[in-house]
Amino acid sequence: MALLCSPMLIINRPKSAYWQDWNDSQKAPWIFWHIGAFWYRFQELLGNYVLPAPQRVCDMASAFFRSQVIITVNELGVPEALEAGPKTGQQLAQQLGVHRDYLERVLAVAERLKLVAVSYPQPGNEEAKLYSLTQLSAVLCESHPNSVKHMVGLFGDHFPAFAYLTEGVRSGQTPYKLYAKGLSHWEHMQQQPELYTRFNKAMTDFNNLCPIKSVFSAYDFGQFSRIVDVGGGLGAFAAAALAQCPQLKGQLFDLPHVIKEAKQAWSSQRKPLLRRMSFSSGSFFEPGKVPAAASNSEVFTMRQILHDWSDADSVKILKQVRAAIGSFTGCKLVIVESVLASKLMRNTHTPRVTGDVHMMVQYGDARERSEAQFEQLLAASGFRMSRLLPTKSLFFVLEAVPV
Ligand SMILES: C[S@@+](CC[C@H](N)C(=O)[O-])C[C@H]1O[C@@H](n2cnc3c(N)ncnc32)[C@H](O)[C@@H]1O
């Protein structure tokens, strides 16, 4: 009986069961993290051994069928429609205002991907079939503490540019520019502000995709009096640092229109931290715009900045940060990014190299970098890499000191 009831038990789990804080996974010892990463790799290897090559290669080549289903489920708001409880196909289609047959065919794939669970309260009656939320679709709800809704939306925005990858590789042109009729990703988003708004929110989701606690467990921000987050977007990283370290003051720096959005977001959602935060805007390419250091106990942070830029541009940005540090050579620079080809995290290498292609599609000569490449960039800009720390996420923490 228990066995028969189990699908209903799964499907009727209370919403709170899925509203767990995934940052708690950071408490697991390193060994578990490595075993988990290896498990993913092992399944891939096992699949390679068992499945015929034609099937494997076609499965990989058609992976975008699946990714588009996830993006569509997210974009239509299916997870949020299921937040209040299970629904039939008819109820869902009505609530979302969409074509019922198409929706249910998409949901059939979503079920295989464990994005929705299905139950039959009246066996044999398809009409009464119920769809409900799962652990995976719960994080596509904006209200989830570790939501990645906007990040998944951003992947959808980036998808069309990937269609120009072949042409880009043939011609050496940036695929995104081919897609956006000559505009860079930044220019395109500035022309279509709703794209930039989603991008900014997606960057906030990075605190969940690469759990922010992974960075704070690896590196102690408690040693500093002020954090200057360069290209800090809406300030998700700086906010987490301020919440973690009560002594810390913050300075957020980004382009003017982003800082305008950030100020609005902070005054509505981050009020308790606001009195420790200040904002300034400009371009990190322009001399004198990156906020200047005022003491030796400050940290300049850059999360996911340098991978958006070519080596030449990265050196220009780093030189502006070095100029902002000036004679306060006790200050540190902390870069939070992926690092390629690191022996420390071999089993999680695949997302980093695909991330490198993502950067190429978006920005051309931008790239993910190896430790040696970061060392070169830093040395060319008046810094020396002092530490490279892995985290229990795709990110590394690179600490550099001015020379
Ligand atoms: C990949 S996002 C990272 C955002 C943030 N560091 C985070 O991790 O949440 C890159 C950021 O660089 C900012 N940016 C792009 N060009 C810039 C420029 N010329 N000057 C200052 N910021 C810039 C973007 O607005 C965006 O917020």
From TrEMBL:
A single BP term in Gene Ontology: methylation
Every O-methyltransferase dimerisation domain range: 59-142
MF terms (GO), sorted A to Z: O-methyltransferase activity; protein dimerization activity
A Pfam family annotated for this UniProt entry: Methyltransf_2
Keywords for this protein: Methyltransferase, S-adenosyl-L-methionine, Transferase
UniProt-listed InterPro entries: COMT-like (IPR016461), COMT_C (IPR001077), COMT_dimerisation (IPR012967), SAM-dependent_MTases_sf (IPR029063), WH-like_DNA-bd_sf (IPR036388), WH_DNA-bd_sf (IPR036390)
Record-annotated active site: 307 (proton acceptor)
Stretches assigned to the O-methyltransferase C-terminal domain: 162-384
Organism domain of life: Eukaryota
Name of the protein in question: O-methyltransferase domain-containing protein
Native species: Tetradesmus obliquus
Source organism phylogeny: Eukaryota, Viridiplantae, Chlorophyta, core chlorophytes, Chlorophyceae
